[in-house]
Amino acid sequence: MSPLKLKKGSSSHSAYNLRPNFSDVQERHTLAILVDNEAGVLARVIGLFSGRGYNIESLTVAEVDHQGHQSRITVVTVGTPQVIEQIKAQLGRIVPVHEVHDLTVEGAAVERELALFKVAGTGDKRIEALRLAEIFRANVVDSTLDSFVFEITGDSRKIDAFADLMRPIGLVEMARTGIAALSRGNA
Fold this sequence. Notes:
The protein is of the alpha+beta class. It has 2 domains: 27-102, Alpha-Beta Plaits (2-Layer Sandwich), CATH 3.30.70; 109-183, ACT-like. Chain A, domain 2 (Alpha-Beta Plaits). It has helices at 41-51, 81-92, 124-135, 156-166, and strands at 27-36, 56-65, 70-79, 97-102, 109-120, 139-143, 147-154, 171-176, 180-183. The strands form 2 sheets. Strands 5, 6, 7, 8 and 9 form a 5-stranded antiparallel sheet that branches. A 4-stranded antiparallel sheet has the order 2-3-1-4. It is elongated. 18% of the residues are buried. Mean pLDDT is 87; it is low at 1-15.
């Protein structure tokens, strides 16, 4: 039996090859950050992202504990696994940050977004807008003779699909809240 020979420049999977196998693939992660609800905290968290060139796809923040004066910041970002780990570590070092959870890796999570769409149209376009709104379970929250404002909730793909269908009908304006997310189950 001959010993295994490796060509020059090839890598082996031995115990001596201790370099971590990091990927260059960009991944989307949803981070939930529990912070003190005080002036400047949001700016410090967001400054961490902008100061290092990290992109934020979605950002929501609201007070979740009135008595404890704590807010929850939900950030959706994209990066390589190394970048995501670096973001979480740096967030954890900011003093008013109490917890950092990566909902993407901690298990199943529920993500929802709310959006408002102003759609203008009369005649057949108006009828088509109402038909599509019914299919997507969007609510009419305002109506005039020549426009509607629809309210829709769901995951980002649903919101995007609704927008794509409303554009040719007469989408005038859209406002989105960004993603709110919670992990599923008991923990």
